[in-house]
Design goal:
Strand order of the largest sheet: 2-1-3-4-5
Largest sheet: 5 strands, parallel
Radius of gyration: 28 Å
Helix content: 40-55%
Number of strands: 21
Structural class: alpha/beta
Length: about 775
């Protein structure tokens, strides 16, 4: 019997579907394989996913038409990969726009695809490549890259669109972690461009997988849903418990998914279904699969693991390899710290490590505020009610004082309730627990924030005094003195009450009112100062409480906040900048030592890396091609490791590092779009004008590129400044020496150096495109 090939393709456009149907007939006529299409499976006009999956199980080869990144086709392709089938992606080469989407999708670019224009092309390529005789991706790519790791309970693929439904789902799953569930989250909005093998590892490790597809009306939905669909199919192939959820709309209700997905009308419908699904999970940690036997590591290289570039996904392992910096020690020792860093610099890792370190001291009470999502529109409406600056700041400070005090109450009450010895009735501890219950303070921060804002929006006084009095009443300010005494009685013996705040930048989106949000964050800092002074006072009724706060902010957000401050130089800032190359390399080395405790850090480079790349020492090569941030060096080395394992190498060779340079460059480019403060469409148009250019370019050339991208001349300076702030462009500060902004304080210094150079030479200084982006944009390396 000939081997069987299954053809998966979208039903629309009809002309394209006809090409694939005709190709299936022509391939069948070669006599090499028997062929079936999904349309051959129709019985009585019905088609269900089980019929398609069974047909794939019975086939040896899956021919998948991927030009349009159809969700159904990619789901079936993902299933085929982890079910151990050979796969053969087909791609309409006449579709130029789809080529760009395919490169952005990226998960299968290393596998390649078969370009075609007509059915005869497909037949000819089949005879040339005989794809049914190829080994499966499971054997050649997926299995070799899997490694024993800490298994998880739940793998969650978030939607990149911040709808009410997605925010509520994020919160619901975050709450699951409070009950001991180990949750691994993929957030496409973070710009993390993981390879196929990373998704395979997460799915393999998980007991259950939940995938939130995005509404197709959003511009980011096509690529996001394509990736999510492929990964969902992989989960089905690994026989994991799977739930796909999607908003009700006819154009995104895939027929094939109907038995696997839940289509919701409202956010409350979604959460009710997820609750039901979660309650049915036993979360027995996955260690093996019916389709993938227990792993055996054939080479020492496969035991190497550089970990996750996202700290939240390995919080339980962070302590074993965390690299302490001076900025981190300031968080532990200072009473008020604004911890500032670029995206990927390690803010969340420092946040998590600081929380664990402070909690390790029994005489500390640690309040962790990490809202997964909150209603920014209502905050903006609240602030818009107050036209005068002093009124707005009063409202913001009142809101923050209420939220911070209630967070302290909530944390202290939870700490008391968790103790083995119950609190005595009518004691201050019992009163505090009762206060938290009566005021429903056990809710998460985001819920209390939204309730407080909703209450404050009812403020209707006409005079300033009336408005302030009404706001104070709605924020329960009259009770804060009572609560302060109660906290003093309960926490008076504590050495320190620490508040750590992260994730406030989740609301910092392109559609947000950034001025209002900046006022909100500035008000947080002001209110904490006043709250610290209040808590530090003692008298006959109150003990002094040492209150400290650390807020973790992205650099661009802090610069916006600082621009509104009356005295920005007095803001207590701790900046995380990785200017020390040895310290940045330790991010990788400590991860190695954590799993190879008998080895030194140098052993990593001696045993697992080629010494040179194109004549350049390997560590210097890596440092010269990544942005100086932990996320980036981890991602680069992970790409190199995956390439080496795919190639069957015993160490990471020069070719693997060259491959990693291309993969990392695309990762850096997509992360840049996320970090960008312009609209993504504007920035993409500008950046692609640099494709194929020289690495060092004149100022006039940059100005012309912005014009060619369609932006008006009035926007030119703003766009160039943003490209410098994002470290895409570096300034020439000495002859043939270029420097990049990694810190908001760099701009004035680098501008002065560039001007001085121009004065000395008598002609304009140049710009240089950062090496991190050159490979993706086909920009040549420097010729020295």
């Amino acid at each position: 019997m000939p081997e069987a090939a299954f053809f998966a393709y979208p039903a629309t456009p009809p002309a394209s579907a006809q090409v694939i149907r005709d190709a299936a007939v022509k391939v069948r006529q070669t006599g090499l394989v028997s062929c079936r299409t999904w349309e051959d499976l129709r019985t009585s006009g019905t088609l269900v996913i089980d019929m398609i999956l069974e047909a794939i199980r019975r086939s040896d080869l899956i021919c998948a038409e991927v030009t349009s990144l159809n969700a159904n086709v990619l789901f079936e392709l993902g299933f085929a990969i982890t079910a151990g089938k050979s796969v053969w992606p087909l791609y309409d080469s006449a579709n130029s726009e789809a080529e760009r989407n395919w490169q952005r999708f990226r998960l299968l670019t290393t596998i390649g695809y078969v370009p075609y224009i007509n059915s005869d092309d497909i037949r000819a390529q089949f005879l040339r490549e005989v794809p049914h005789l190829r080994p499966s991706l499971l054997e050649t790519v997926v299995r070799p890259n899997l490694s024993p790791s800490a298994a998880s309970d739940l793998f969650y693929l978030r939607s990149p669109i911040a709808t009410d439904a997605s925010r509520q789902l994020n919160r619901r799953l975050d709450r699951e972690t409070l009950h001991g569930c180990r949750l691994i989250t993929y957030d496409p909005a973070e710009g993390s461009l993981y390879p196929l093998t990373w998704f395979a590892q997460q799915v393999y490790d998980a007991s259950a997988v939940i995938v939130h597809l995005s509404p197709s009306r959003h511009s980011e939905a096509l690529i996001s849903n394509a990736r999510a669909s492929l990964v969902a199919g992989m989960a089905k192939g690994f026989d994991r418990n799977l739930l796909l959820v999607l908003e009700e709309q006819s154009e995104l209700s895939p027929l094939d998914y109907r038995d696997l997905s839940y289509t919701y009308r409202t956010p409350s419908d979604l959460i009710a279904r997820v609750d039901e699904w979660l309650n049915a999970q036993t979360f027995r940690t996955a260690t093996s699969s019916s389709t993938l036997p227990a792993l055996s590591l054939a080479t020492e290289l496969k035991s190497l693991d550089f970990g996750e570039p996202v700290a939240e996904n390995e919080a339980d392992q962070l302590a074993s390899y965390f690299v302490e910096t001076a900025s981190y020690r300031e968080v532990l020792n200072r009473s008020l710290t604004i911890f500032v860093g670029r995206k990927g610099a390690g803010k969340s890792a420092n946040f998590l490590r600081a929380a664990d370190t402070m909690r390790s001291q029994p005489r500390n009470l640690v309040c962790v505020i990490q809202p997964s999502g909150y209603e920014l529109a209502s905050l903006v409406r609240l602030l818009a009610q107050f036209h005068a600056e002093d009124e707005r700041m009063y409202a913001v400070e009142a809101l923050w004082q209420y939220l911070l005090v209630t967070e302290i109450v909530r944390t202290a009450a939870a700490d008391l309730s968790d103790r083995l010895i119950p609190v005595a009735p009518e004691s201050p501890q019992a009163e505090l627990i009762d206060y938290a219950d009566r005021h429903e303070l056990n809710n998460e921060f985001a819920v209390r924030l939204e309730r407080a804002v909703a209450s404050a929006l009812g403020n209707s006084g006409e005079s300033i005094e009336e408005r302030r009095a009404d706001l104070a009443r709605r924020m329960h300010q009259h009770e804060l003195a009572e609560v302060r005494e109660l906290l003093s009685a309960v926490l008076g013996r504590k050495d320190r009450v620490c508040i750590l705040i992260d994730n406030l930048d989740k609301a910092w989106t392109r559609t947000a009112d950034l001025d209002q949000l900046a006022h909100l964050l500035l008000g947080l800092l002001t209110s904490v100062q006043r709250l610290r002074h209040s808590f530090a006072r003692s008298d006959s009724r109150r003990h002094a409480i040492d209150l400290s706060l650390a807020v973790f902010l992205r650099s661009d957000i802090f610069e916006k906040v600082a621009s509104l401050a009356a005295e920005p130089d007095k803001l207590p800032v701790s900046r995380l900048v990785w200017t020390d190359n040895d310290l940045l390399l330790r991010v990788i080395e400590e991860r190695y030592v954590a799993t190879h405790s008998s080895d030194s850090r140098n052993a990593l480079w001696e045993r697992f890396f080629t010494p040179e790349v194109n004549g350049e020492e390997v560590r210097s090569y890596i440092l010269g091609r990544v942005l100086p941030r932990p996320r980036d060096i981890v991602q680069f080395c992970s790409f190199a490791l995956a390439s080496a394992i795919d190639a069957g190498h015993s160490r990471i060779e020069e070719s693997d590092l060259v491959d990693a340079t291309r993969s990392y460059s695309q990762f850096a480019f997509e992360a840049l779009l996320v970090e960008n403060g312009l609209t993504i469409r504007e920035l993409e148009a500008v950046l692609f004008e640099f494709a194929g250019s020289e690495p060092r370019i004149a100022q006039d050339w940059v100005a012309d590129a912005i014009t060619r991208a369609g932006l008006p001349e009035t926007d030119r300076d703003r766009v160039i400044a943003r490209l410098r702030q994002l470290s895409f462009l570096g300034r020439e500060v000495r002859d043939d020496t270029f420097a990049y902004e990694e810190d908001g304080r760099d701009e004035a210094r680098l501008a002065a150096l560039a001007r001085n150079l121009e004065d000395q030479r008598g002609w304009p200084s140049r710009y240089e495109i950062h090496p991190a982006y050159r490979a993706y944009l086909d920009i040549a390396e420097l010729r020295i």
